[in-house]
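With this grant's support, the team has encoded backbone shapes as discrete tokens. A representative record is reproduced below.
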Amino acid sequence: MKKILKAILPAGFKANGIACGLKKSGKPDLALLYSEIPALAAAKFTTNSIIAAPLIVSQKHLKSAKKIQAVLVNSGNANCFTGKAGLKDAQAAAGYAARELKIARNAVLVNSTGIIGKRLDITKIKQGIPELVSGLSASGIQKAEKAIMTTDTFAKEISLNLRIGSKVVHLCGIAKGAGMIAPDMATMLCFIMTDAKITKQALGKALSAAVDKSFNCISVDGCMSTNDTVLVLANAAAGNSVISGGKDLEDFSGALECVCLDLAKMVVKDAEGATKFIQIDVCQAKDFQEARKIALSIANSALFKTAVFGQNPNFGRVAAAVGSSGFKIKEDQLKIKLGSLKQKQVKLKVTLSRGKASATVYTSDLTPEYIKINAQYN
């Protein structure tokens, strides 16, 4: 397995990104990912009960279409809390892209990110789509990743190659996210493309496992968004023997988890206003779910996060967060080991003496700069 810290599209995929005028800054704000070969798709969406219009449309398309060929993404506007008009706008965006690409509308998925509660300017998207489609290329992924960014300070990208039988399979992932990051789909957008030949069931199983140990194990501020999406497309262009189970699925799942985890860590490292990257290891728990929930209780503690920012080794903040997790932890079971707070990367180890399971969660410190960024975001 070979990892490359740059997005390189697998065979059969093209991408592009442009500025269509949704952002007042004039920065890129409309992206398109396209597979020349109809691809199998698997996705995970936000668990927020207030769900953005494009996610509703994408969920319907995933159910009605056997395969997907395109993903249209805009930044600068979340198209959420916009009622029936927002739903029509999301449907229209998919239709405009489908018409230009000459494919079925339900073969197009749509995503949005940005301000909640403001109607999407669908006219600007309609006007930008011809340029977006005509500029599609196998080297256009860097343009696409810039177009999905909001408060991000750098692009999150990774590629990975692995051998399945006699063939080399490629994976490429891009993500955006820096604020409103919470578990249960960590408030971000992530798009993964692979040329692997795999069954739909195996692809869904691999994605669920990968998300569980990556995007559901990070938290910046404990605030869940309405637009969270992790999507993987597989177009079978690598020509490998179909992955359905056994070692091939184990290897592919490991590669997909690696892509997701690296992107998830990048999101935390780019957390709004952050000065510290914090790794929380919870060991000797009864099971993985218990370990992760306790780790997230610590990660979402404003008192712990501000203590790390202030380089204050206050173990009481950790003990209190563990105790508030919902599990009955006895004082004599709990051991806390906190690394140096002077380093940019901080490690916290919590031992529970209750079992053999463990989980790792990643978070950041909470700073005055985070407050400033979000106080001015509108």
